[in-house]
């Protein structure tokens, strides 16, 4: 059996994500934003003052990627890092006034990309598509969690 990319859910999802990212990048670049920083901004707009670990968990990305993203965001004046008053070992990530001011324009750009991309779908199709994506994401996350969690009571052989 030959692999057919046009029948591969993973390939199609990746291609779709790249197209969404391309269109979003074109719309948010004039705001000084990138698709690399946009997910972190979305999370911080919802809940400012998270730790780097909390951002990693909410965005489901690797620590080095998050560290690089935060460094760029700090350089670009979008965030500031402050020590947690309760635990000096922890830094909290806070949006700057500049980043807060971009929320409306940036989310409007994302909404426009979504509207354009889904314009060919009716309301029910759109809802079904989004629900299916959420179920697939949950399935893949649960599968990853199962792989990452050692079996209870299992001892490793050396």
Automatic annotation (TrEMBL):
Q: Which residues form the HTH marR-type domain?
A: 9-138
SUPFAM superfamilies named in the record: Winged helix' DNA-binding domain
Give UniProt keywords alphabetically.
DNA-binding, Transcription, Transcription regulation
Record's keyword annotation contains Transcription regulation: yes
Family annotation (InterPro entries): HTH_MarR-typ (IPR000835), Tscrpt_reg_MarR-type_CS (IPR023187), WH-like_DNA-bd_sf (IPR036388), WH_DNA-bd_sf (IPR036390)
Q: Name one GO molecular function term.
A: DNA-binding transcription factor activity
Tell me which PROSITE patterns the record gives.
HTH_MARR_1, HTH_MARR_2
Q: Can the keyword Transcription regulation be found in this entry's annotation?
A: yes
PANTHER family for the chain: TRANSCRIPTIONAL REGULATOR, MARR, TRANSCRIPTIONAL REPRESSOR OF EMRAB OPERON
What is the protein named? Transcriptional regulator
């Amino acid at each position: 059996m030959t692999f057919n990319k046009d029948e591969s859910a993973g390939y199609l999802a990746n291609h779709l994500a790249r197209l969404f990212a391309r269109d979003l990048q074109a719309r948010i670049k004039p705001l000084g934003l990138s698709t690399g920083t946009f997910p972190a901004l979305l999370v911080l707009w919802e809940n400012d003052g998270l730790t780097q670990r909390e951002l990693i968990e909410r965005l489901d990305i690797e620590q080095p990627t998050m560290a690089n993203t935060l460094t760029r965001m700090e350089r670009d004046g979008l965030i500031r890092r402050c020590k947690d008053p309760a635990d000096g070992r922890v830094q909290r990530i806070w949006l700057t006034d500049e980043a807060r001011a971009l929320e409306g324009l940036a989310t409007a750009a994302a909404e426009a990309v979504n509207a354009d991309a889904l314009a060919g779908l009716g309301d029910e199709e759109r809802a079904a598509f989004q629900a299916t994506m959420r179920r697939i994401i949950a399935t893949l996350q649960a599968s990853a969690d199962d792989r990452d969690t050692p079996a209870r009571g299992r001892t490793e052989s050396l």
